[in-house]
Amino acid sequence: MSQPPVEQPLLHVDDLRITVGAGHADAVRAVSFDVQKGQTFGLVGESGSGKTLTCRAILGVLAPGCAVTGGRIDFNGANLVTATRKELDRVRSRHIGAVFQDPASYLNPSLTIGRQLSEVLRVKGGLGRKAAQVRSVELLELVGMRNPQRVFGQYPHELSGGMLQRALLAIAVSCEPELLIADEATTALDVTVQAEVIELLRTLRRELNLAIVFVSHDLAVISELCDRVAVFYAGEIVESGATRDVLVAPRHRYTKALLDVADTGGWQHRAERSAATRDGRLAVIPGQPPALGVIAPGCAFAPRCGAAAADCRAGDITRQTERDREFRCIHPVAAMVEAAR
Amino acid sequence: MSATDVTRAAGRLRDDEPRPVELLAVKGLNVTLGRGHRILHDVELNVAAGEILGLIGETGSGKTTLARTVLGLTAPVSGTVRLNGVELTSLRGGKLRAFRRAGHIQYVFQDPLRSLDPDLRVADIVGEGLAIAGVPAADRATRVRSALERVGLDAALADRSPGQISGGQRQRVAIARAIVVEPRLLICDEPVSALDVSNRNHILQLLADLRDQLGVGIVVISHDLGSLAAITDRIAVLYQGHIVEEGPARAIFTAPQHPYTQLLIASVPTIDSSSGIAADRRRELREQAAQQVGERTNG
Amino acid sequence: MSTFRRAWQLRPAKISVVILAAIVVLVAFGHLLAPMDPLQQHDGQILKGPSAHFWLGTDYLGRDVLSRLIYGSTLSVLTALEAVGIAFGLGVLPGLASVYLGRPFEWVSQRVMDGLMALPFIIFAIAVAALLGNGLHQAMFAVGVLMAPGFFRITRAAAWSFNRAQYVEAAQLLGASPWRIIRKHIWNKVLPTVAIATANHIAGALLIVSSLTFLGIGVVPPTPTWGGLLASDLNYLAQQRWAPVAPALLIMITVGALNVFADAIRDSSDDGALKDATKRRRLGESRNVATAR
Predict the structure, then answer these.
(1) Contact B268, B276 (CB under 8 A)
(2) Is the pLDDT of residue A138 over 90?
(3) Which terminus of chain B, N or C, has fewer Cβ atoms within 10 Å?
(4) Where on the phi/psi map is residue B290: left (φ > 0), alpha (ψ -120 to 50), or beta?
């Protein structure tokens, strides 16, 4: 009879609405998802799909002109949307850390890495100068720098892109936050460096019990790193669930289209195929995503969907739940019999 | 020019010719930049008409320098670059300009936003090469229109400026500008990195079509192995200024020989179900390969 | 060109252009607009205040101040333009050429300009006066020559920054000659910067002209100039306390309008830092802000 207590999720986003610009265009509509402690959650979608705006809303750093107009963002129970500047300051760095796409532009080029890292530890972590220095070197070692003492004294221009991103990760986790937001953190990196940073994120998660919200357009990276994933399209989450389920057996047509286009699972086989036959054109998704704020009735993906029917363009598309996952599609891809896990 | 003239001019091979027509031959290329910093070491590269060569290189590999040297924007210390037998490194000033006006080699830049003049209309941008070559306005308009059509752009876009069209459309404009002069060799630097995932295949397919229909030889420089796998015939791997491996695409992707290539292949993330290698094994492989690469190039 | 169009949308720009247009009209058609002969002395009308007949009153010789001001505009403004014209010719073209004509020319032109910048103005002006005579035109010639390095460096810097652009490389790869690149790609982008420099330099030259004529250099009385009027007014300050206001105001407004105009162009250009949020908002709709992806 007694059930284990349902743990409160670390991050609970509920029906989030964000508008952009003077015309108050809806850029994010009714976005809801939960992130548990120590879980990696992926947000995947193309540019303009709303995933980055959602992250910025969580961090409270929406660009001027953007505003949260509905919903809540609960972090450890407290609503970040209605939080005061002071409360947000308290939460940022100490409880939520962040890394972004272009590491070089987030570091002061005239200060050493060590100085910038110590600064965060002293201001946010309350450490003294000496203690901050020691801890900085420890953190640089944690993020995999081969020579942490040396990096401490180096300037950003002396480091490669991968090392810069590691340095930023060190800064982001310096005050031991519970949640890390990584917005396209590996997109600008070389393939080999990207693999290393993904590995590092896994390590950090393991050692610090860090929950990660990982935003990317790359399904393969999400697949490598994330336990759960939410697929964004035109400001909405069209499908979400366990990564393995969603990416292996997608239900929403857009997810399927993305997988066909990316074909990252079979890229090696694609090479074989293309060399052998030289026919068989690459999968494309016809059309363009809807412009910002243009909301047609029905499913936003219908104009580009091969299987769209009349009722797809009519009223509200209700969210369907299937065991552990949800999707907004009334003519979804046929459910596949799960192969032996 | 009729379609057959175009294909003949582009050196496309007919079905009964088994030997590929060699288009670009780079041999022993050494390039130094700035204060004696050697970027390329003895680089050798061959591209045939009607084939796509993928050049894989990460940051610092020298791939952009290689492209710029072939294009004549950078002078090599030693080595030869031959296009259809013509030695390019000895061209200077007026001769170089005349060679470029003839449009044999064209380049598609990595950043579609910065490589298009923001103050010009699309039609003027695409037709610039023709204007420079002295093609009369009426002919120019026709050829620009057909180039835009070939890259899948609506003719109405011709009057817009680069700031008014999307990233994918800008990249197509850049490609249209390159192909309107009917080049034999096309060099594309990261043609799809700046684009959304759903747009990439459009461009990749376009490049494959150019190869198949016009017999153009194409070099695609990229660090995105997935894109390269889709369309390339052969692959060359550039690491710290050395070509460490070269061969048919299929062989490179399925059975890489050089440790760096192995490292690359092992580093590409895949969607779980179809990857044969578990994450741990991949990590091992990566560490092995990184070690070997360090030994080999330092030795 | 889009920069100028955008600049036009700002209110300060519109006001300054209107003012400058009025000045241009004064300069061009002054002799038609002035109610009286500026040199004619009216007996018994010495140092009178503004009246229906003499709108701005009369000076110490009974001459109509308004007419003298209007005629003075021509000389003052034209000599200022003369100086800037010389500076423009000696600076802008070599500035552009130094980017494209190869290393030797680049080196030589830069050293010449460095040399000119090193010359102290007064000494040079005196030397020119000694060589060519003591006149306003000679003085403004000296001013123009010494202003040239400024134009040179500004034009060179602007051309240099655009020269590195990828679309310029793309044009080079298509076989474009340097001249074509300047014509088609560089000139209209350099123009806003050059226009700003020109407006600022005209303002500066105007102040220099006014100062020189104030000191009495190069102008044979009774020729009216703004600075000269200011000087003579100051001599009779006790009798006409308000008299210097008119020429001073004219100088101020013209110089001010030029500077505001230059500011407007700078703020509308893509390189201008739009610190003012209002300006940013008003310009927001007309700027082609392209997203990268």
Answers:
(1) no
(2) yes
(3) C
(4) alpha
- The beta-carbon neighbor of B109 closest among C170, C174, C180 is C170
Nearest to A268 among B253, B279, B282 (CB): B253
Cβ atoms of B10 and B184 closer than 8 Å = yes
Q: What contacts C275, CB < 8 A, 6 or more positions away?
A: none
Of chain A, the end-to-end C-alpha distance in Å amounts to 30
Expressed as residue numbers, the domain containing C168 is: 2-284
Which residues from C are below 8 Å from B111, CB to CB?
A: 166
Contact flag B73-C169 (C-beta cutoff 8 Å)? yes
Judge: B133–C185 Cβ closer than 8 Å, yes or no: no
Residues 99-138 on A with a CB inside 8 Å of B are none
The answer to whether the Cβ–Cβ distance between C166 and B111 falls below 8 Å is yes
Contact C174 B100 (CB under 8 A): yes
- Chain C, residues 177-216, CB within 8 A of chain B, namely 177, 180, 184-185, 188-189
Domains of chain B: residue spans and CATH:
3-255 (3.40.50.300), 256-299 (no CATH)
A88: confidence class by pLDDT, cuts 50, 70, 90: confident
Size of chain B, expressed as the number of residues it contains = 299
Sort out which chain C residues have CB atoms less than 8 A from B109's CB and list them.
166, 169-170
B247 by Cβ neighbours in 10 Å (0-12 / 13-18 / 19+) ranks as middle
* Structural domain total, chain C: 1
Q: Shortest Cα distance from C68 to chain B (angstroms)?
A: 47
**Nearest-5° Cα angle at B204, B198 to B205:** 95
pLDDT tens, C13-46? 888 889 999 888 888 888 888 888 878 888 877 8
Neighbours of A74 (CB within 10 A): 17
Q: What is the largest CA-CA distance in chain A?
A: 68
Instruction: Please list every residue in chain B whose beta carbon sits closer than 8 Å to the beta carbon of residue C293.
Output: 167, 194-196
Spell out which residues of chain C touch residue B162, defining contact as CB-CB under 8 Å: 290
Chain B nearest CA to C273, separation (Å): 19
What does the block give as tokens for C231? 């000087």
Six-digit token string for C64: 């109509």
Q: Is residue C234 part of a domain?
A: yes
Q: Which tokens in the block code for residue B284?
A: 């091992």
Report the residue of chain B nearest A338, measured CA to CA. B273
Residue B8, token pair as written in the block = 């003949």
Q: How far apart are the first and last CA of chain B?
A: 54
**What tens digit of pLDDT does each residue of B200-222 get?**
888 888 899 999 988 999 999 99
Give rounded-to-5 percent helix, strand, coil for chain C. Answer: 70, 0, 30
Could you report how far apart the first and last alpha carbons of chain C are, in Å? 26
CATH code for the domain in which residue C26 is found: 1.10.3720.10
Number of H helices, E strands in chain A: 11, 12
Is A220–B269 a contact, with Cβ atoms under 8 angstroms apart?
yes
B249·A271 Cβ contact <8 A = yes
Contact A264 B270 (CB under 8 A): yes
- Helix/strand/coil for A317: coil
Q: Measure the CA–CA gap between C112 and B276, rounded to whole angstroms.
A: 70
Q: Mean pLDDT throughout A304-320?
A: 81
In a domain, C40, yes or no: yes
Q: A74 forms bridges with which residues in the sheet?
A: A12, A79
Q: What is the pLDDT of residues C201-219, one digit of tens each?
A: 998 888 888 888 887 776 7
Cα–Cα distance between B52 and B227 in angstroms, integer?
A: 12
The DSSP H or E segment spanning B48 is strand B37-48
Q: How far is C181 from chain B (nearest CA, A)?
A: 11
Give the confidence band of C289 by pLDDT, cuts at 50, 70, 90: very low
User: How large is the angle between the packed helices A129-142 and A161-173, nearest 10 degrees?
Assistant: 130
User: Has residue C233 been placed in a domain?
Assistant: yes
**Residue C120, domain member (yes or no):** yes
